[in-house]
Amino acid sequence: DGGITQSPKYLFRKEGQNVTLSCEQNLNHDAMYWYRQDPGQGLRLIYYSQIVNDFQKGDIAEGYSVSREKKESFPLTVTSAQKNPTAFYLCASSIGGYGGETQYFGPGTRLLVL
Amino acid sequence: KQEVTQIPAALSVPEGENLVLNCSFTDSAIYNLQWFRQDPGKGLTSLLLIQSSQREQTSGRLNASLDKSSGRSTLYIAASQPGDSATYLCAVIARDMRFGAGTRLTVKP
């Protein structure tokens, strides 16, 4: 089955710790995205990548980092510089680059701070 | 900057009712508008995609309309069922994708 997988489902972060969220897709999509969702708010874009080895900041990139070494994978690192990381994180992908394309979403990772 | 608003934030209806969810956006220069369903703690499932040249799309009991000039879209759900309980999000697709905060729907048996 083609789709997007995210792991882990739940992740706990200690103070000052960096954590990495995994996102993998087997849809052969070029573009991938990371969103943050807070209660009562819409999704906000953290980073996106239109092609391997290239990525762009979204609206709320501070405190986050990404890499895109393979077409299938787009991991997100939440660094210690992100002071309020508790949220639901969603990864998505689309066939082409940003603009006019529908996106397909993974099941999400909930990040909690200890 | 595109702003997307969904009203109401929450809605509770008895089973069998027909209902309308609203989505408004500030910039009418869009490519598409998409409606998603999100169950608690889950990802987003696409329901309907309306291209900017279309006025509406239908899938089963769902009908979505788009009026670009007034910056509005509606999602009509006919004969609601308890299984329809979820949060419904609209997203406007232009140069980027902007989401509303969603309407949390509860359908009571």
Give the key terms.
heterodimer, A: 114 residues, mainly beta, 7-stranded mixed sheet, 4-stranded antiparallel sheet, 11 strands, globular, B: 109 residues, 6-stranded mixed sheet, 5-stranded antiparallel sheet
Write a short abstract of this structure:
With 114 residues, chain A is mostly beta strands. Chain A is 0% helix and 48% strand.
What layout of secondary structure does this protein have?
The complex is a heterodimer of chains A (114) and B (109).
Chain A (H helix, E strand, L loop, with lengths): L3 E4 L2 E4 L5 E7 L5 E7 L6 E8 L2 E4 L6 E3 L9 E3 L8 E8 L9 E2 L3 E5 L1
Parallel strand pairs in A: 2-11
Antiparallel strand pairs in A: 1-3, 3-8, 4-5, 4-9, 5-6, 7-8, 9-10, 9-11
Chain B lengths: L3 E4 L2 E5 L4 E7 L6 E7 L5 E8 L4 E4 L2 E6 L4 E6 L8 E8 L3 E3 L3 E6 L1
Parallel strand pairs in B: 2-11
Antiparallel strand pairs in B: 1-3, 3-8, 4-5, 4-9, 6-7, 7-8, 9-10, 9-11
